[in-house]
Amino acid sequence: MANLNIIYREKDVPNIHELPVYLKHGGYDALKKALKMKPAEVIDLVKASNLRGRGGAGFPTGVKWSFIPQSEPVKYVVVNADESETGTFKDRQIIENNPHQLIEGSLIAAWAIQATAVYIYLRGEFWDLAQSLDQHIEDARKKGLVGDNIAGSGWNCMVYTHLGAGAYICGEESALLESLEGKLGMPRVRPPFPANKGGGLYGEPSVINNVETLTNVPWIINNGADEYKKIGTEQSPGTKVFCVSGHVEKPGNYELPLGTTLRELLFTHAGGIANGKQLKGVLPSGGSGPVIRFAGNDDPLLDTPMTYEDFAKIGSILGSASIIVMDEDTDMTWVAAKITKFFKHESCGKCTPCREGTYWLDKTLDRIMSGQGQEKDVDLIASVARNMQGVTLCALGEFAANPIIYTIKNFPEDFKARLDGTAAPVVVAGH
Ligand SMILES: Cc1cc2nc3c(=O)[nH]c(=O)nc-3n(C[C@H](O)[C@H](O)[C@H](O)COP(=O)(O)O)c2cc1C
Ligand code: SF4
């Protein structure tokens, strides 16, 4: 089995964030190798590896790159370092500890699509990371690895960082492009899609990839698609960083092969459910994915392999793999109400079902949580949430409907306890 720290290489090589250390351990060799290949060959190699986007949707990366029309003279690579999904904190660790591998992966993507520049869009709170990333980019530029005549190839490509202002919606790729252009971060109407003329950054064809996705690329170029596919499963190859938070003994980021079971992640790596409690629920993709119900620590569902395909089979999504763990004492109505407050606050308001829907869900849940709810309120929120599905301009509307729909479906007894007064009234804090 190949070395499993593809992403978090600092675990094997201390100080790999420093350029001399990175170079000593094969850093930028993959870029030099890629520069000797034809751009189309690089795309074919990444396609053959079946690397899937780590930003949430799991879209095949090489296929995404192949959508870019080569005939257009100006093209961009945009790195999504917005990292705003609830419970997600993996990209930060990459930027802090292995930044050159991200820069190298972004430049390989840029060579593959023949981009003129790379923009790394970071969430506003990452201002300190943006500063250190600027320094790493400058170090690489001074060594001739970024900017003009990269590695003596005659090819020019600069890498820039850009800070957002701290809005969840700016992680959505088209809102991110708007924000990067200096406009209000609101999703665009598509088509045209970012890969097409008119749809990308400044109207030019653009590839948008997540930080973790691009950090995989140097390893794939160095070791080949077949080696990469030996890790993980056929449909979900490679490693994945799982961000574990909530009621576990050892929360944190764990890089493991895709296909590792949820049981192994939670009980072998994350130390088990905190304080000897039993597992009740898991949000596998932060607040945005369907919540999964567990009947304690022996539930066979815990043996589900963590892949895009297996999580779809159990009625949820792997998404960004931000695994929020909840024990037997968790009130799932509180969870639904808390997440709803987040989405209400973060809805950009551009389309009616999401803007109005999140408002009404929040208001009605407040009533239920305060002990004033009636049975018809649960039907009302279920109906409002259903009416948000599939009709909004971006996926945030869908994300906001999920906590309601799946909490009512998977934890009906928690709602019942709210309505019959068994659960004590509570005010859920939020915006
Ligand atoms: C509301 C919303 C928020 C998102 N936030 C992020 C984010 O913080 N980081 C990210 O990489 N992708 C985020 N995405 C997904 C991006 O739109 C896009 O699919 C992703 O950056 C593509 O990269 P990938 O193909 O490498 O996964 C978000 C999507 C939506 C709808
Ligand atoms: S779904 Fe919500 S966040 Fe997305 S565009 Fe519509 S209002 Fe904005």
What does this structure look like?
It is a single chain. With 431 residues, this protein is α/β, with parallel strands linked by helices. It folds into three domains: 9-229, NADH-ubiquinone oxidoreductase 51kDa subunit (Rossmann fold); 239-327, Ubiquitin-like (UB roll) (Roll), CATH 3.10.20; 332-419, Up-down Bundle (de novo design (two linked rop proteins)), CATH 1.20.1440. Helix content is 41%, strand content 13%. It is built from 17 helices and nine strands. The strands form two sheets. It has a five-stranded mixed sheet. It has a four-stranded parallel sheet with strand order 3-2-1-4, with helices on both faces. Strand 5 (239-246) and strand 6 form a beta hairpin. The relative contact order is 0.12. The model has no long low-confidence stretch (mean pLDDT 96). It binds flavin mononucleotide and iron/sulfur cluster. The site of flavin mononucleotide (FMN) has 23 residues, from strand 4.
Distance between the termini: 48 Å
| CATH architectural category of the largest domain | 3-Layer(aba) Sandwich
Q: How would you sum up the global shape?
A: globular
Strand content: 5-15%
Query: What is the H/E string?
Result: HHHHEHHEHEHEHHEEHEEHEHHHHH
The number of helical segments is: 17
Sheet/helix structural class: alpha/beta
